[in-house]
Amino acid sequence: MKKILLLSDTHSYIDERVLAYAEKADEVWHAGDIGDLAVTEALQKVKPLRAVFGNIDDHEIRKEFPLNNRFICEEVDVLITHIGGYPGRYSPAIREELRANPPKLFICGHSHILKVMPDRKLNLLHMNPGAIGKHGFHKVRTMLRFTVDQGKIDNLEVIEIKREPGYN
């Protein structure tokens, strides 16, 4: 069994509260818009990290992390990308891959809107952890925590951190 902390859209910001949650996980997964390699370096000091780059990420981050990251974790086929859409409205860039070879767990970021929903047509679970950074329209910073064990995704928990005033 692995405990996963899933986050996205840090936009160059990481704080001790996020790192404290990372310490309690077995792995941290980042769904893009990292913003600065200092974010991923801080996370990697705490736990193993799997990540993808997002649309705001520069060439340095794009050299370090892929556009799509597909892997098996505890018998669960996982696909992470930054701009992915959601069931019924997938991004054209990923739609065909999802239809041809759907993973069990499809993760994306980008929207800053936390969303977890099944895709019954493709028999997959879609997760978007929302945004944990300070920049964007979101009012609450969010992450997801869950376990992966012998092909099962379980113990899903939403983590909310209040945004400090004065950020756009």
Automatic annotation (TrEMBL):
Assigned keywords, A-Z: Metal-binding
Entry cofactors: a divalent metal cation
An example molecular function term from Gene Ontology annotations: hydrolase activity
Pfam families, per database record: Metallophos_2
SUPFAM superfamilies (alphabetical): Metallo-dependent phosphatases
E.C. number(s) listed in UniProt: 3.1.4.-
Domain Calcineurin-like phosphoesterase: 3-150
Family as reported in the entry's similarity comment: Belongs to the metallophosphoesterase superfamily. YfcE family.
Protein name, as recorded: Phosphoesterase
Organism: Leeuwenhoekiella polynyae
